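Aim 2 progress. For 7-cyano-7-deazaguanine synthase, the working sequence is reproduced below.
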Amino acid sequence: MTKPRAVVLVSGGLDSTTVVAMAQAQGFEVYALSFDYGQRHRAELIAAERTALSLGVAEHKVVSLDLRAIGGSALTDSSIAVPETESEGIPVTYVPARNTVFLSIALGWAEVLDSQAIFVGVNAVDYSGYPDCRPAFIEAFETMANLATKAGVEGRRLRIHTPLIDMSKADIVRRGSELGVDYSQTVSCYQATDEGLACGRCDSCRLRRAGFEAAGLADPTRYI
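Predicted structure tokens for this construct:
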């Protein structure tokens, strides 16, 4: 029996790698999609290639686009420092419209693949400061996707799956570990070295470390 296809957004980090394993556990054939968008380092793209290979996805595609052209984020503008202390409001690591852009391209590939499923690892618990990680955004995008595509007009309704949306980092780590995810292959740090070593100080590093501690599991992250 042919498995249904799913496009899964893959950054190379802990969350998106877990989503790949979860999609596979649900019986989907995974088509992984990553973006070379002008981010601060390429270590996460190398990690994405590594994890896609180890998890045995059907295909891994990397799409190039340059969000440095508009900047506005510590992840795409080297003149904006990555914060190493907690802050209020929307953090400067928010990349303007990034999830909207990424999901739009994923939508196009899903149509080409005749897929009715897109998986994305957004999380409203740990990243509540990001407006494009909220359930309301995902619901609105899904509505738009089914209005704007040939597949949607013809009745092949697409669904955006967000399996991590209400999970804590500890729950994500536990679930991924149950599914056999090798987290030592992933890179979550906002300012990792070329070799993929994590700073241990940025928001992403702090959340990741706390997740392993709360889950009661050893943290395999390679720190500077």
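Residues 126 and 155 are 35 Å apart (CA to CA). This observation will guide construct design in the next reporting period.
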